[in-house]
Structures are given as structure tokens and as C-alpha cells.
Amino acid sequence: MNSIWHEFLAATGARIDQDLVTDFGDPPGELSAACTAPIVSPLTHLRLIAVGGPEAAVFLHNQVTSDIKHLATDAAQHSAWCSAKGRMLASFLVFRSGADYQLQLSADLLTMIVKRLQMFVLRSKVTIVDLSGNREIFGLAGPHAVEALQALGLPVPDGPLNTAVGSAGLVIRLDSARFQIVTSTEDAAALWRRLAAHARPVGTAVWQWLDIQAGIPLITERTREEFVPQMANFERLGGVSFHKGCYPGQEIIARTQYLGKVKRHLYRAHSASPLAAGDTIYSATSPDHPCGMVTNAAPAPAGGYDALAVVQENFVAGGDLALAAPGGPRVDLELLDG
To answer: What DSSP string describes 122-169?
Structure first.
């Protein structure tokens, strides 16, 4: 996190642990507000990479799972970058910013992904730039979020995964009640003050809980190379094109899809005990090997922890799932909507 932005947030009451804004002094109240009130959160768990140059579109199209060539200037899309074995190295929200493409990803993967992407540039006319020093991301959600944007003179994109550019930054509409705002670090403090007049400031964990409710997984260092995209629902999120040309892992991903070999699926999970990305899930009927893994987790407003988890489907109905080891804390699953 940029040191100036870090100091500003701390001065406004943010409690920060290892660059993550844990809360603004009232974690339970902030979680409760996520269900009933407009909230604004600094998304310090995310970072941005800019991919530019005359051949940026072709380069990205040949590397990631989504159809970059047909990404409109006012649109965003989910995507992933995979290993040759079809396992996700990172998940992205990709959108246009002028002539450049911006990739939003987990902060703990930034350095590795930038370095690895640069290895594939070779002689292509492509630039890859880490934007973490001069871009900040806010999340705005809840009832009256649209009105808050309008009151600040910010544009309101028409529909989900549409974008719009205003004088203070770029707005991405995630769904009917959730937006992201990407702004310069220079303008971040002034914009934050204006947003905080219309929405309650909350810690990053509140936004992570909202992502879980929306069924949006995020690949992090602890889950890197654990899943093919279909296990994490990326084909349903529009993050996989089965009609484009080759990209790393494409053959395995396509074969998995067309042969119906996806035996692990994404579920919403709950436990009274703490959950974290990368935690394993076991079934009493198969105690020697884990049958699932947590992708993302956050404290739940009603108590305990909510999560997204990839679980082998033939162990789901048994209802005997446990965290970390057979006989561990109970984990309950529910199907994602749709």
C-alpha cells in the first residue's frame, strides 16, 4: 500500500494489519451495516497491472482464459491466467482504461504475476506496469449506492460489468448494488472524504464477505495452482471462452469441459470456527485425503465465518464435512444461486 494512502486511512480511524484495512473500529457494526446500509471500503487486498502497447490485446488474448479481443471499451470481464496444466495462477477482473488493459488481482500475487507475464512478452510491442504505487480501489455497496455516486458527480454504468469514466476515476458496476471506483493515489483522499459522507467506512473483510455472497472467488497465493477455472465457476462468470484460440492450459480446460470431467465445484460454506483461503476440508468417509479447499473466507454478520470452497461433489450430500482434519470443526455447504 502506498505510504501516503496508508497514513491517510490510519488518520481517519482505519486499523491496518500487513497492508489490509481490518476495520474502522467497530468490526461487528461494520459487518452488520453491509446488510442494511451503504458502505465504502478501501480494497487494499487488490492491486492493478496495466498492459499497454500496440499488441496488448493480442498478447493478453493469447495468455488468459477470456476473450480479450472482444472486450468493449466500457466493459469489464472475469478472467484467469493458467499454467500449462490448466491450473489457475491468478484470477483477474479485466477492464479497459484508454488504450490500456488493466488486470485487477490479489495483492499477494502481484510481484510474481508481473514478473512471469514479462517473461512472455519477448519481442511483442507490449508494456506491463505495476500500478500499485499510483492507483487506489474503493468498493461502494448497499442501498443508495447509485445515489451516492450521483451525488458525487460520478458516472453510473448501465449494467453489471459495465464501466464508465468520470473526472475522479473509473467506475465499475459489479451488480445491481455494488461498484468499484479506481482513482489515482493523488485524488484518493479527497474522493474518500466525499464518499464517507454518503456511506459508512468499513474494513476490507466486509467487502470480502460481500464477494462471497456474490459467489466471486479470488485466487490468492494460498490457492494458486489448485483449481482449473471450472472448479471455481469461472465459466459461469464469463471468465472462460471456449471459442477462442490457444492459451496456456487451453487443451486441458476444454477437455475438462466437453468430457464432463469437472468433479469439484464451488459452494458457499459456513463454519463456527475461523476459515481462511487454502484451508482443507475433509469427509469422514474419506479421512486420508481432503475433499475440498476454501478459496476465500470472511467473518459473517450473523457469527462464525462464511466462505467459498471447492469441494468434490460426491462428498457433499453426506453432511459430514470438517475443517482441516476428520473430526475437525463442522463445515456446512450450500449451493450457489444459479
So the answer is: TTSS-EEEE-TTTEEEEEEESTTHHHHHHHTT----SSTTEEEEETTE
pLDDT digits (tens, 9 = 90+) for 273-303: 999 999 999 999 999 999 999 999 999 999 9
Helices 185-196 and 3-11 meet at what angle, rounded to 10?
20
> Residue 126: what pLDDT?
97
- CA 211, chain centre distance (Å): 7
- Say yes or no to pLDDT of 265 above 60: yes
Number of structural domains in the chain: 2
Cα–Cα nearest to 296, from 277, 322, 272: 277
- Same domain membership, residue 307 and residue 162: no
**Please, are residues 282 and 312 in contact by the beta-carbon 8 Å criterion?**
no
**Residue-number span of the structural domain to which 225 is assigned:** 221-334
d(CA 5, CA 41): 13
The radius of gyration of the chain's CA atoms, rounded to the nearest angstrom, is 20
Q: How far is CA 215 from CA 24, 130, 218, 312, in A?
A: 25, 27, 10, 17
Residue 338 — very low, low, confident or very high, per pLDDT cuts 50/70/90? low
pLDDT tens readout for residues 314-334: 999 888 999 999 999 999 999
Amino acid at 6: H
Phi/psi of residue 53, each to 5°? Answer: 105, 160
Residues 21 and 120 in one domain: yes
Q: Are residues 133 and 258 in the same domain?
A: no
| Helix-, strand-, coil-residue percentages of the chain, each rounded to 5 | 25, 35, 40
Question: Do 197 and 267 share a structural domain?
Answer: no
**Mean pLDDT (the chain, rounded):** 95
Looking at the whole model, is its pTM more than 0.90?
yes
Is residue 256 within 8 A of residue 228, CB to CB? The reply is: yes
Residues 6+ apart with CB under 8 A from 132: 1, 2, 47, 48, 107, 110
* pLDDT tens profile 207-253: 999 999 999 999 999 999 999 999 999 999 999 999 988 999 999 99
